């Protein structure tokens, strides 16, 4: 079986100039690029996931706008698969699972945005669908949230979701540690 990379929603919408800039997105996308380069260099399967709203006038991920484009830092090369989705779970009503199975992927490496939304939903779904998962925690980003009138800082949101996902659904690793393990054949 094989290891495959799933790059979730690393799109212009989340970067400076987008309509929902995430905390730490520059660092996260640089780390995602490190993992992407590793997969490209080794010829391992990789899949870009792109979120598109179903409404033409949506406030976020509006089809046909530059905001929905995959960010330059991880831009797909010709021939790389791009899976379009309309919900947080990258598997929901998409061909992603079939594409992974078609190339023998049983181990998913997940990077992208947002930690508390699409990364959470995709990682849990991947596990529930029978995939072993690795989540590259420093190649994911999120934003400040609010709960009952209190601000929850992005770093706290991210840490909480990584802790929850790492407890059951995925092995957590930094980009550097994952690349080091890959070089050692782990």
Structural summary, described in words:
The chain is built from five helices and eight strands; from the N terminus they run E-H-E-E-H-E-H-E-E-E-H-E-H. By secondary structure, it is an alpha/beta fold. It has one domain (2-183): 3-Layer(aba) Sandwich (Rossmann fold), CATH 3.40.50.850. A six-stranded parallel beta sheet has the order 3-2-1-4-5-8. It has a two-stranded antiparallel sheet with strand order 6-7. The radius of gyration is 15 Å and the shape is globular.
List the helices and strands and how they pair.
Layout: E1 2-8, H1 25-42, E2 46-51, E3 81-85, H2 96-102, E4 105-113, H3 115-128, E5 132-141, E6 145-147, E7 150-152, H4 154-168, E8 171-173, H5 175-183
Parallel strand pairs: 1-2, 1-4, 2-3, 4-5, 5-8
Antiparallel strand pairs: 6-7
Helix pairs in contact: 1-5, 3-4
As a percent range, the share of strand residues is 15-25%
User: Which spans of ≥5 residues are poorly predicted at pLDDT below 50?
Assistant: none
Termini gap: 14 Å
**Structure annotation, total helices:** 5
Instruction: Please name the CATH topology.
Output: Rossmann fold
Order of helices and strands: EHEEHEHEEEHEH
Mean pLDDT: 97
What's the short version?
The protein is an alpha/beta fold and 186 residues long.
List keywords for this structure.
two-stranded antiparallel sheet, six-stranded parallel sheet, 186 residues, alpha/beta, Rossmann fold, 5 helices
């Amino acid at each position: 079986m094989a290891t495959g990379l799933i790059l979730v929603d690393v799109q212009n919408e989340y970067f400076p100039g987008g309509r929902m800039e995430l905390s730490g997105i520059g660092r996260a996308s640089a780390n995602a690029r490190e993992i992407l380069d590793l997969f490209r260099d080794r010829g391992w399967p990789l899949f870009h996931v792109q979120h598109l709203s179903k409404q033409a006038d949506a406030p976020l991920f509006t089809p046909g706008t530059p905001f929905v484009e995959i960010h330059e830092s991880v831009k797909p090369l010709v021939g790389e698969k791009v899976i379009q989705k309309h919900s947080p779970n990258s598997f929901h009503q998409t061909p992603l699972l079939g594409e992974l199975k078609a190339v023998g992927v049983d181990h998913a490496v997940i990077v992208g945005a947002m930690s508390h939304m699409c990364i959470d939903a995709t990682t849990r779904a991947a596990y529930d669908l029978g995939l072993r998962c690795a989540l590259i925690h420093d190649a994911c980003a999120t934003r400040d949230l609010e709960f009952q009138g209190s601000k929850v800082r992005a770093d706290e949101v991210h840490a909480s979701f990584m802790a929850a996902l790492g407890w059951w659904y995925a092995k957590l690793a930094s980009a550097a540690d994952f690349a080091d393990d890959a070089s050692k054949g782990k």
